[in-house]
Design goal:
mainly beta; six-stranded mixed beta barrel; three-stranded antiparallel beta sheet; about 40% strand
């Protein structure tokens, strides 16, 4: 099982992930004679408190993605009232130091959420972590992610 072990950043467990147009969207663009934007490598914060993965609007815009729908989300900042968020299907890949093993989600539903001001582009939620083994060692200031 491929895994990565890294030190904790000042804001928590950070990894690099690849985000791109979902495989079905990329196929549809190619069939229409258009070229999808190449996936982008971005910083992600691993968040066991997030039920779903969120992506910053700057990445969504740079990939030319279109919403696949909307969904209500509830966060500590929304209080008791849920917030309506755009939803997108993306290709998401997790790899480590050019390892041949990669965890790929070909059409992962994500929500749009402003994250860049917090120092990352993606909030990696339990929808992805459900396919992984995640170990957080706060005393030794490291984490491991295996997939």
């Amino acid at each position: 099982m491929p895994h990565l072990t890294m030190g904790l950043s000042p804001i928590g467990p950070m990894i690099d992930v690849w985000i791109g147009a979902s495989v079905p969207r990329a196929s549809a663009l190619k069939a229409a004679g258009r070229t999808p934007e190449l996936p982008k490598q971005v910083r992600a914060l691993v968040d066991t408190g997030a039920s779903c993965t969120a992506v910053d609007p700057s990445i969504i815009k740079s990939l030319g993605l279109i919403p696949t729908g909307t969904t209500y989300i509830q966060t500590p900042s929304t209080g008791a009232a849920p917030h309506l968020a755009n939803q997108y299907d993306v290709l998401l890949g997790v790899t480590y130091q050019h390892a041949p093993e990669v965890l790929i989600f070909e059409a992962l539903p994500v929500i749009e959420s402003a994250l860049i001001q917090q120092g990352f582009h993606v909030l990696l939620g339990r929808d992805v972590l459900g396919k992984c083994l995640f170990i957080y060692n706060g005393q030794e200031a490291y984490f491991s992610l295996a997939f």
